[in-house]
Structures are given as C-alpha cells and as structure tokens.
Design a protein that fits this description.
The protein is built from 18 helices and 20 strands. With 583 residues, the chain is of the alpha+beta class.
Length: 583
C-alpha cells in the first residue's frame, strides 16, 4: 500500500511538473507572439513612413509584401499590389504603358522576367516617359526571392542636369567673355586664371600661377603709386572686396598693357578664408583712347562754347554739371559759373533727375531726342528739344545734353491741337474730341463693369433767334449755354458741342436710377432755358434731350449715338423741351 501511494505521489508530482512546463512554455510562446506582433507593427510603420517604395517577391516570383509608396512612386493600381501577384504582371503593366520604350511588349516582358529569375543584385536609374526618374535597387533574399526598393530621384536628376548646364554656361561665358576670371589661395597666390588672360596679355601660366599680384606687377609700377597699393594691401588684410584696381602689366612681347580687376573674398562653410575670386579686363585701348580724348578736350570746349544751342556736360554718376556753355546759361537765366556743380536734374520741371540715365555706362545710355520742360531762375518755364549722348569727359562717364528752344513751336502746335479738338465759338470739346473720349469711356465700362450715359441735346426754338436777331445774338446764346452747362456738370463729365445747336454730356460711372437721371436731365433743360432767356428774353428757347446708356455689354460708339439721337427726336415729337430715354 505504501508503495502504491508512493507511485501515485510520484505520478502526481510528474504531472504537476509537466503542467508547469507547459504553462511556462505557453507563456514564452505568448511573449514571443507579442514580440513578433510588436516587431511586425514596427516593420509596418517603417514601411508606411519611409519615402521609398518596397516590394518583396518569394522564390516563385510572387509578391509577398509591398508598401503604399511603391504604388505612389511607380503609379501602380492597388489591385496590382496584392500579395500573390506574379512578377510578370508588374513587368507587363510597365511595358504596356511604354515604360521600356517603343516596340513589341512581349520581348520586353520576356527578357526582364528572365533576368529576374537569375536573382542577381542590380541597381539602375530609369527615366520614364513623363520625364520623372526612378532609382531601382534589387537584392536576392536567403529564401530564394528578392527585395527591391524604388526611389523617386526626379529632383536629383533635374538638379544634376541643371548644375551641368550651369557649369557649361559658366565655361561658355568664361571662354566668350572679354573679361577673365581669377582665383587666389589663402596666401593670395594665383591658383587659377581663365584662358582669356593669357590670350590678352600674352604671358605663359608658369609666369603667373603660384605668384602674388605684387610679384606679377613688379616694383616699378608699385613705386609709381605707393599709396594706392598700401590701401589695397590693407583692404586685403581686412578681407574686404575691391573694385576697379588698375595697374600696368608687362606683356609677353615686352609692351605695357593696362588692366582693371575686381575681387571678392571667399570663405568656406565654417568662415575660414579661402582666398579671392574676381574678374579682370584689359583696358589698354580705353586708356589710350582716354589719352587721345584728353588732347582734344580743348577743341571740344571751344566748339561747345561757341554753339548757338544750349549745351551741358553732366557727370553720369552723380548728376553734377561739369561744363555749361553761355547759351544754356542764358536760356536758364543764370551765368555758366552759377550752373557749374549744380544738379542737371533740377533744370527739368517735371522729370527731375529720373529723366537722366544716371549711373549707367556709356554703352547703356539711351540716345535720342525728346521734348522737355525746363525752368528758368525766375521760375518761368520753356520748352526744349533735348538730346542726350554719352561721352567720356575728363576721364569720366558723362552725358552730353543739348537743349534747343522750341517754345514758339510748342505753343503753335498746342494751338493747332486745340483748334483740331475744340469748338472755336464756345471753347468746348468738339465732335472729334467727344468721339475719342466716348470710345475710351466705353472701353473702361467694359473693363471695370460700370455704367455710363450720354445726354444728347438739341435746342428748341434756336433757329428763330438766328433768323430774327442775327447770328451774333445766336452765337452769344450758344456761348452762354456752354458756360452754364460746363459750370453745372461735374469736373469728370465731358460737355461738348457737336455742331450747330447740338450739345452732348458724357457721364461715366453713373449708378443712379432712371428717375434720378430724368431729374438731372430736366435740370439741365432748365439751365439751358435760363441761359437762353438771360441773353434773349423775348424768344423762348429750350432743349430736347435724348439719353442713352452704355455698360460692359456696349454698345459701340456709333450705335450709342444713334440711340441717343433717336431718343432726342422722340423727345421733340413728345412736345419738345423734355427728356426721352433710348429703348
């Protein structure tokens, strides 16, 4: 009995041990499943957030895994990216939409599927038909499949292409430019000069590269102007940019050349000084031309002094008068001495210095004649035909200004223009002026979606005044009516005499109701009646008024005036001295 109990107890203990082991193993499996789930979640998070498309194919080239980025980058439909989809379907989709170029798609598909079965690592970039570019990297897996990443490299490809184009442009500019380009190291020794320098100066690179500028220039040139070189060296030590540094340079054939250089300091990302970069130019011809010009300046001054036309020479950098002949001083009511050092822009009434092309090199200065209004010392003004030409004077870029007095011609032209566009009797704009203004008003109404109108007047009873009292009395009455109409209307309204006893008022941006317009028109009729009565109380004179509107839909000028005319005649037929609106 005791032995039986011992066996039972042993069996019970063994069972408990097995249960504990099962429980422990189950706990381990559950923990492992949780870890795997957590790991899967992290993997899915990575796949959903990285900016790279990913595909995983098994050993049978069937899709096991892909992310949304694959669909977005490759523009695949969602149904194509389902697990189990054969690799061949992806290749066919690409081939049929022209990803691999023109031609029969079947050979394209077959060749690419055969390559995939080789399961070799691969990396390439493909430019797609729409111009975008994709980098594809594939790697075999230990299970016999392969994993592939897809990265949109369109921006990088375009940036690299733009950089190559920019570098090409720079090389082209450097080769074709009349300037040369240089670069020094941190010790200020020349380490680069573009080929144009050697072509222009005739020196070999071994005589220039690796040397400082003072070694290249030579002591003789530096001794001739030690202050300039001292200031230049101090600017270099302060790492300041410099401009227009001029110096002579012995060329390869032994002759002297004159050069002008500009430089700016260069620094790396940490602010470490790298050296200077800049441009240079052969100015020998300009220097020689300046010498020739200086020898002829006395002759130029003598010619300008005797000119019957007003002349001034102005420094184009600071608008300062460097020379003024007696004729221009006379025209401005001052002496030449009073004008020297003055701003030439102050001569011009409306334009000021903005009229003059200041601060521009001679080649960029526009030449030509234009009419301008100039001011005398007493405040009065006069009109001149002004011509501006660039020139070098006293070694400076200057403007040569000619001013020919055309005041009488301008006044005569204005009088002719007034006669052409205004009524000689009343001074009001005539039909030609009215038509131009009305065309512009119609255009503005269309552009800004506004409404305007035309009051078309015809005097009633005016013929009797001319027939019984004479045309002088009729002219006096027309003048009075014109004066009162002009005084009654707004400044923005246009009052015109179209001919005979016909008047018109052009009103823009009129938003009033028809009742208000009617009241305004009747007020104008009353004004006409009162003006006529003040001149000739014995003969009643009134007006019939036709009103026609225009807005964004038109009408054209001829139709507008036809409507106003038709409305005016309906007003006459209605008993005269009244208003009618166009239909």
């Amino acid at each position: 009995m005791t032995e039986q109990r011992q066996r039972e107890q042993a069996l019970k203990d063994l069972t408990e041990q097995l249960e504990q082991r099962v429980l422990a193993r189950t706990s381990e499996l559950q923990q492992r499943e949780a870890e795997l789930a957590q790991e899967k979640g992290r993997l899915e998070l990575v796949l959903s957030t990285i900016p790279v498309g990913i595909s995983l194919f098994d050993s049978n080239l069937n899709l096991e895994l892909s992310n949304q980025q694959l669909q977005d980058i490759m523009r695949f439909p969602s149904e194509l990216c389902q697990p189990g989809m054969p690799f061949e379907r992806f290749i066919r989709h690409n081939a049929e939409r022209g990803e691999y170029g023109v031609g029969d798609v079947e050979p394209q598909i077959r060749s690419r599927v055969e390559i995939a079965w080789e399961r070799k690592p691969h990396r390439f970039e493909r430019v797609r038909p729409d111009g975008s570019a994709v980098e594809v990297i594939g790697c075999p897996t230990i299970t016999g499949g392969f994993v592939t990443t897809y990265l949109d490299v369109t921006d990088r490809i375009r940036t690299e292409a733009a950089l190559r184009a920019s570098e090409s442009r720079f090389r082209d500019f450097a080769q074709s430019s009349s300037d040369w380009y240089f670069e020094t190291d941190a010790e200020l020794c020349m380490r680069y000069l573009s080929s144009h320098f050697f072509d222009a100066i005739g020196l070999q690179p071994e005589f220039i590269l690796g040397k400082k500028r003072e070694q290249i220039v030579g002591s003789d040139a530096m001794v001739s102007d030690p202050e300039k070189w001292r200031l230049h060296q101090e600017a270099l030590l302060r790492r300041e940019p410099y401009r227009d540094l001029e110096y002579p340079l012995r060329s390869g054939d032994g002759s002297w050349r004159h050069v002008r250089v500009n430089g700016v300091p260069a620094f790396d990302a940490d602010g470490q000084f790298l050296g200077y970069r800049g441009t240079g130019k052969d100015i020998t011809q300009a220097k020689e031309a300046a010498l020739r010009l200086s020898s002829s300046e006395a002759q130029l001054r003598a010619i300008l002094e005797a000119s019957p036309i007003g002349v001034a020479v102005v420094d184009s950098e600071n608008d300062t008068v460097l020379f003024c002949n007696p004729r221009l001083a006379e025209q401005l009511g001052q002496t030449p001495g009073q004008l020297m050092g003055r701003s030439a822009g102050s001569f011009f009434v409306d334009d000021g210095p903005g009229f003059l092309p200041l601060g521009k090199p001679p080649g960029d200065t526009p030449a030509g004649d234009s009419e301008r209004q100039l001011q005398r010392a007493d405040g009065s003004s006069w009109r001149a035909l002004v011509s501006i030409k660039p020139l070098i004077y006293l070694g400076k870029s200057c403007l040569l200004i000619w001013a020919y007095d055309i005041s009488e011609l301008h006044e005569a032209r204005e009088q002719l223009d007034r006669l052409a566009h205004h009524d000689a009797l009343t001074g009001l704009p005539n039909r030609r002026y009215f038509d131009i203004a009305a065309e512009r008003a119609i255009t503005r109404a269309k552009r800004f979606n506004t409404r305007g109108l035309v009051f078309y007047f015809d005097l009633d009873g005016f013929k009797l005044v001319n027939d019984s009292l004479g045309h002088a009395m009729g002219d006096q009455m027309l003048q009075k009516i014109a004066t009162n109409l002009r005084a009654r209307c707004r400044e923005s309204d246009l009052v015109a005499r179209l001919g005979g006893d016909e008047f018109a008022v052009l009103v823009e941006d009129c938003s009033g109701h028809q009742e208000e317009i009617n009241a305004l028109a009747r007020g104008l009729i009353s004004l006409v009646t009162e003006a006529a009565r003040s001149v000739c109380p014995d003969i009643p004179v009134g007006a019939s008024v036709g009103v026609a509107y225009f807005d964004q839909s038109g009408p054209a000028l001829d139709h507008l005036m036809a409507r106003a005319d038709e409305a005016m005649y309906r007003a006459k037929r209605a008993g005269k001295n009244t208003v009618a609106f166009s239909e």
